[in-house]
């Protein structure tokens, strides 16, 4: 071993763990902001989904699902966030951006994400009914001209919990409406 090589290895190892540790912290922080957006949707009787777009470590767009209140199927949190981010940077290409979303995107949103050329997608929890990032189908398995890096299960429990609570609330509300 060359003199100082062990020190170099130690420094590299430390660097690696610092990166992992802070990387993790940041991912969780951003998904927490997306969860706050999901809570706003919940209060509006919308399926609670929130999305955040980050560029160079800074949030440039955040949005929540507004499909029901606007009667517009395109107003999923991801689509609104993509439009906000493009407007903010003045470019439809979001190559340098990353999205954090509490629920696995549907096929419409995955299509939009591929079109936006977003770099990376962080997903809170999966959507077994409409998820197009591995649950129902995986749009990323196809030969599109853009590939998105994906990381799943960021604060999965919290992202799952708000959805479960919302559907329990909906079932209770529907029952009480029927009994009137
Ligand atoms: Zn969607």
Oligomer: single chain
Approximate shape: globular
Span between N and C termini?
81 Å
Supply Rg.
19 Å
Strand content: 15-25%
User: Could you estimate the helical fraction of the residues in percent?
Assistant: 40-55%
Derived from helix and strand composition plus strand pairing, the structural class reads alpha/beta
Largest sheet, order of strands side by side? 2-1-3-4-5
Question: What are the low-pLDDT stretches, counting only 5+ consecutive residues below 50?
Answer: none
Helix-strand topology string: HEEHHEHEEH
Biggest sheet overview = 5 strands, mixed
Bound ligands = zinc ion
Account of the 3D structure:
This protein is α/β, with parallel strands linked by helices and 180 residues long. The protein is built from 5 helices and 5 strands; from the N terminus they run H-E-E-H-H-E-H-E-E-H. It has helices spanning 5-43, 67-70, 77-89, 107-116, 156-179; strands spanning 50-55, 58-64, 97-103, 120-125, 149-151. The protein has a 5-stranded mixed beta sheet. Strand 1 and strand 2 (58-64) form a beta hairpin. The chain is globular. The relative contact order is 0.12. The mean pLDDT is 91. The structure holds zinc ion. The site of zinc ion (ZN) has 6 residues, from helix 4.
Topology of helices and strands:
Blueprint: H1 5-43, E1 50-55, E2 58-64, H2 67-70, H3 77-89, E3 97-103, H4 107-116, E4 120-125, E5 149-151, H5 156-179
Parallel strand pairs: 3-4, 4-5
Antiparallel strand pairs: 1-2, 1-3
Helix pairs in contact: 1-5
The chain binds zinc ion.
């Amino acid at each position: 071993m060359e003199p100082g090589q062990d020190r170099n290895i130690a420094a590299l190892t430390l660097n690696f763990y610092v990166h992992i540790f802070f990387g993790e912290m940041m991912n969780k922080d951003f998904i927490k902001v997306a969860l706050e957006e999901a809570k706003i949707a919940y209060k509006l009787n919308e399926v609670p989904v929130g999305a955040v777009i980050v560029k160079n470590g800074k949030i440039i767009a955040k949005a929540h699902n507004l499909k029901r209140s606007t009667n517009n199927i395109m107003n999923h949190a991801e689509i609104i966030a993509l439009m906000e981010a493009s407007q903010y940077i003045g470019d439809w290409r979001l190559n340098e951006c990353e999205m954090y979303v509490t629920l696995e995107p549907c096929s419409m949103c995955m299509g939009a994400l591929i079109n936006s050329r977003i770099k990376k997608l962080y997903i809170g929890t999966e959507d077994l009914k409409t998820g197009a990032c591995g649950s129902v189908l995986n749009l990323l398995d196809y030969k599109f001209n853009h590939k998105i890096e994906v990381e799943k299960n960021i604060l999965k429990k919290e992202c799952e919990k708000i959805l479960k609570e919302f559907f329990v609330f909906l079932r209770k509300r529907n029952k009480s409406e029927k009994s009137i």
